[in-house]
């Protein structure tokens, strides 16, 4: 390698570093100027089972809010206005900026329906990622559906939950709550047995025993 070629090496290295550094700064600057649209849906859990069924209904006029908080000191880094869902229970929230260092959640605020206004324990809020610096691209960000629970479960829920086979009637709470194995499969009939009623877990015996019929 000639002396002239060796002398050019630092210049080439400096040029490459300048290009790389400029690209990185532009990428970060672009992320900071990103505009996101968070979309989601609010429904009425008419069976009080903490998830959507075919009897669930959209809630128009429900209010949600998006907040972002720094992971280190929990200070508020973004807060949207209160957003109202449309007739289909859908909402859109526009967010400007990058929130790589924050946890962002869409949360229920209130329901317009007094008969369906109990926030779901599992789906009262939903985490959304508002940064492109972690590999997630695109401006659209989708939140999980959020739900309010009806004061009293619909009568039709009994049949729906029998069809699903996962839930039992809570005698204490008077609503429908998730089962963790309170049903057994009839090996002979190939369905939930007995068909006349649900099964509940016997706390004393530690096995499956029939509950009172519905």
UniProtKB/TrEMBL annotation:
Signal peptide range: 1-24
Q: Which terms are listed as keywords in the entry?
A: Disulfide bond, Signal
UniProt-listed Pfam families: Pollen_Ole_e_1
Chain positions covered by the region annotation Disordered: 189-214
**InterPro entries xref list:** Pollen_Ole_e1_allergen
Q: Which PANTHER family match?
A: POLLEN PROTEIN OLE E I-LIKE PROTEIN, PROTEIN DOWNSTREAM OF FLC-RELATED
- Tell me its family: Belongs to the Ole e I family.
Q: What is this protein's name?
A: Pollen Ole e 1 allergen and extensin family protein
Tell me the organism.
Answer: Gossypium stocksii
């Amino acid at each position: 390698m000639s002396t002239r070629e060796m002398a050019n090496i630092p210049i080439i290295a400096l040029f490459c570093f300048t290009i790389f550094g400029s690209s990185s700064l532009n990428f970060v600057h672009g992320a900071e100027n990103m505009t996101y649209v968070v979309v989601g849906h609010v429904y009425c859990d008419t069976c009080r089972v903490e998830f959507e069924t075919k009897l669930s209904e959209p809630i128009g006029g429900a209010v949600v809010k998006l907040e972002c908080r720094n992971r280190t000191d929990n200070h508020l880094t973004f807060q949207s206005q209160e957003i109202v869902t449309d007739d289909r229970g859908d909402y859109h929230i526009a967010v400007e900026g990058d929130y790589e260092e924050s946890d962002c959640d869409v949360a229920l605020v209130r329901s317009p329906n007094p008969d369906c206004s109990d926030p779901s324990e599992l789906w009262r809020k939903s985490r959304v990622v508002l940064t492109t610096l972690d590999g997630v691209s695109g401006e659209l960000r989708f939140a999980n559906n959020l739900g309010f629970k009806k004061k009293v479960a619909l009568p039709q829920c009994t049949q729906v939950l029998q069809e699903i086979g996962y839930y039992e009637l809570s005698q204490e709470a008077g609503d429908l709550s998730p089962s963790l194995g309170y049903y057994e499969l009839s090996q002979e009939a190939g369905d939930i047995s007995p068909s006349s009623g649900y099964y509940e877990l016997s706390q004393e015996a530690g096995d499956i025993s029939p509950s009172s019929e519905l």
